[in-house]
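Encode chain A's predicted structure.
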Amino acid sequence: MIECKNCHTENPDNANFCRNCRNVLTRDKFVDAIEGIHREIDIKDSVIQSLENEISTLKQEIILTKEKSTQQIDQLRAGNKGLLDQHIKEIRTLNHRLSEAQTKLKTESASNGKKITAIILLAIFNIITAVILLSIYSEKERLITSNSEIKHTLDEQVLVKQKDSTNITELTSKLQTITTYSNAPIIIKKIEVGNEDNSNKMISGYGEKISSTNTMYLKPRINFIALKNERTKLFVKLFKNNKLCSGESSLPGYSYTSEVDITGDSELSLDGWGGKDMGYWKSGKYRFEVWYNGYCLKSLDFRIE
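Encoded structure for chain A:
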């Protein structure tokens, strides 16, 4: 035990401040506590900077991938159109030459030799036309296969970027959580629940079994690390069987509020919640949540038998 030099109250060996007068017990413990707080703040700043850099990198990758995909699609469309135009021009040329050959065949039909020549010429043009059409069909199949492969690749890229977008959302949420938590005046390490009567006398001690037959006011106690020395308002939610308990004085979304003085690493009892009649709380599952600035600092699930 450590004796306070100011009021001579005995305190636990690990205490930094007197539980009676809040006087600093030892300079070394005070300095260690302050240095520990600074180290935690530096670690949080480093994590925040790392997350911001990762989010920026992912956003740049998404932009570059979208630009590259758009360029690939435009190039494919332009190449396909030019190739088809060329094949159409060749077919029109062949049709024109074929028409000329047919006209020539009719003009020289009197001569058997000329007939044979025209027939052979016509057959050659038919063969050439068939070869070109076969080439066009093969090229069309190749383009269809190429388009399918590119579409599959683009679909895979879209899935990857959708996953990256999800990661950005998760990282942003983590960043907001860390930023919110870093503004809190305390870090709550533990919550215990006791049961007291309307004269503030404990019926069931903190952490002890609570029987429904003698319940009146459920009173939470928090064990915490102080980050700031100030008077602050904590918001409390009490759930019974997953249903929020509230009253006429409750703020929207909360059961009640409790103002406390944060003056050092210690324990604090928050205000109780219940009724003056014995047996106010029925048996079942309960949960206390302590909130600050829209962020849940700590929660505890417990039962009333």
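The radius of gyration is 41 Å.
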